[in-house]
Amino acid sequence: MTTVEVPHGSRSVVLRVAAVIAETADTSSLVFDVPDELREKFEYKPGQFLTLRIPSDRTGSVARCYSLASSPHVDDQPKVTVKRTDGGYGSNWVCDNVKAGDLLEVLPPSGVFTPKDLDENLLLFGAGSGITPVMSILKSALARGTGKIVLVYANRDADNVIFASELRELVDKHQQRLAVIHWLEPLLGLPTSDTLATLVAPYSGYEAFMCGPKPFMDRVHDALGQLGVPRSRTHAEVFNSLAGDPFADQAPVEVSDEEAADAATVEVELDGEVHELSWPRKQTLVDIMLAKGLDVPYSCQEGECGSCACTVLEGKVEMENSEILDPEDIENGYILGCQARPVTDRLRIQF
Q: Which Pfam family would be a valid example here (predicted)?
């Protein structure tokens, strides 16, 4: 395969693939070797993802987000897991071409699908390759947390269960804290909202995390809604194929005098620090934060990955593309920084 030795932008780096692990017949994990000088840049939270630059004969490259199945508290090297999808260019290219020793261009870890408190009791849902970020959370909570963990893992059949042996070992080791419920279609059919609600009713007080195909997650959302689980304690990871090029450096923001005079004012809390910024109304929140040299979390800048999700505490914004957010998320103040433009004159936003 063709490898790249020089990154295409200032944010990305080139990493060597240390190992390729065949997880199932159509699923492979890539383990990356991160040199010491990049260790800090590639520190990650359980449930986050990496964005890989994949060569394409038609467009030069495509960008794809793959969740980290490794745990920052357990594993020495980061590992992403990729399952083939029908017609999926990126996943098929990875599974067909990547081998140990290859070089791949990668963006630093990103994403907000991560527990704030590993001591919480956790109710985890995964379907198919949706187990990947859930596995990272599960291993991290077992290693560093104290709560109980219940995993509901749905698959077409037993041959498609990713991390089957690792899950068995974890259950044996943590019998008092971990329960894994396998939902296999040949035995149980497709899960419904009602059957899921009945299944997890004893754990309705747990913090819920889910990842998988949209129909599965819709049923999980419905089930948790039936049980009265607050939306604030329900977290979903959604990935779409990225159409743009997040590896390219962003052009500087140019603001006219007229735009500057009409700009809104925003207080942004990022990593515990508050920054007051002028926010021209045609610019996105990510644009103005990058222009000020702030290390704002983002990946695609298309409203498709959720990396830049944040909360409006005061004021109002408009968004061009917010499909990745549920209506309930938007009602609760969640926005996408890469899509948000100010409506009111003053805003407060928290990452």
A: FAD_binding_6
